[in-house]
Amino acid sequence: MGIIPSVLGTLSSNTMASESPPPVDRLSALLERFHVRAQLFHSGPLCGVTRFMAEPGRGFLHVLRRGEMVVTHPAGVGVARRQSLREPTLLFYPQALRHDFHNAPSEGSDLTCASLSFDGGAAHPLVRALPAQVVVPLAAVQGLDASLALLFAEADRVRCGHRLLADRLFDVVLLQLLRWLLDHPQQGGMESGLLCGLCDPALARALTALHEQPGTAWSLEAMAQQAGLSRSAFAARFKDTLGTTPADYLTGWRIAIAQSRLRQGRSVKFIADELGYANASALSRVFAQRVGVSPRVWLEREALP
């Protein structure tokens, strides 16, 4: 009788040891703190040349539904000057980048387009982490068909609330695209940075913990434990993948949150408590070191037209 509990305990222990860590939600904590809002502005054919100007803090998400077209960009921006699209495609511009669509007048391509507003503009973590342009054939993103069918149905017919619903459906399409990028970083043109870190199962656990609990007194050892790595292995892998140290990344994440909270009208003392700083002076020192000016001066500059 005494052997049975012992055997069961051994089996249970072995089973737990062989189980892989549970998956983590790599996007919610990031997007809940730093919102992205989509707004439908066009659905239908385009003929001739259509120019989309670069505006700080504004991005674009275009869906080429049918037809063919040529896309051009200015020289020296790190994106191909001319691209030819011959199949249904998603074009994602998270950064402020001018782009022109060239369509044959007799066979204008059919597009559905939304502008994207990023909280914090160019300082939004996704804007900093993503390449200037992402081009993905619709067929490559699994599960996108249903969302696009609903989006096109709302975009093509004028019904009560259709614009509001189309905006939310564009949000869904963007989220599905970001999920795809996490699973296909190289196809999305990402070689290093935050999303590459979130693609790494070990680093993703640590990064998600930092995103969800920025006010915790994170040591290198505590971060490494989240990743299931030794301190040295974690530090080296983090730097190689994200291009920065864990401590510098955590500081940058906290300051980005502080800037967001300042825009919302929160006091420096409130933000310091939320982010784990001893007092408002401690946060102000770190803020000035990272940003170059005090929180008060930074906020005054943000308010300028």
Set down the secondary structure blueprint.
Elements: H1 3-18, H2 28-33, E1 36-46, E2 48-52, E3 58-66, E4 69-72, E5 82-85, E6 89-93, E7 99-103, E8 109-118, H3 125-129, E9 134-137, H4 144-156, H5 162-183, H6 194-199, H7 201-212, H8 220-227, H9 231-242, H10 246-263, H11 268-275, H12 280-291, H13 295-303
Antiparallel strand pairs: 1-8, 2-7, 3-6, 3-8, 4-5, 4-7, 6-9
Helix pairs in contact: 4-5, 7-8, 8-9, 10-11, 10-12, 11-12
Quick structural overview:
With 305 residues, the protein is of the alpha+beta class. The protein has 13 helices and nine strands. The strands form two sheets. It has a five-stranded antiparallel sheet.
Which ranges are low-confidence, i.e. pLDDT below 50, for 5 or more consecutive residues?
A: 1-18
How many structurally independent domains?
Answer: 2
Secondary-structure element order, N to C: HHEEEEEEEEHEHHHHHHHHHH
CATH first level of the largest domain: Mainly Beta
